[in-house]
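Kindly inspect this one:
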Amino acid sequence: MAETERVICRIDELVEGSLAVKFTIALSEPARDLPCFAIAFNGVVYAYVNSCPHQGTELDWQAGQVFEETGLYLICATHGALFEPDSGLCVGGPCHGAHLRPLAIKVSGTDVVLSCPASILHTPGNEKRES
């Protein structure tokens, strides 16, 4: 399966345990934009689909605000579910034991790069990035 790569942000835009960088993936089947986010935690970059396994709502209560106040867990603003930032595992709340959907990313130089199967994307160039 062919992979499509694109830069989602610069590594210096991700502050440990702080605001996430939000972006979307333009899906082809069904045609829609999938909200996603990238974070830094314990010196590693992670990316997830921005959808709580409980009811499918986005985690952030304000743009990019996915960490709870200590910066140790991701939190869903809707019902307070807590997730481990490095695994996406829900460790507290209504979806306990479920996981956020991880995305394949890597750091290349100063860029954070997303890899997606080309079959799920709209025509290249349709991807959007939110600031």
Observations:
- The radius of gyration is 14 Å.
- Residues 3-120 form a domain with the Rieske Iron-sulfur Protein fold (CATH 2.102.10.10).
- The chain has one domain: 3-120.
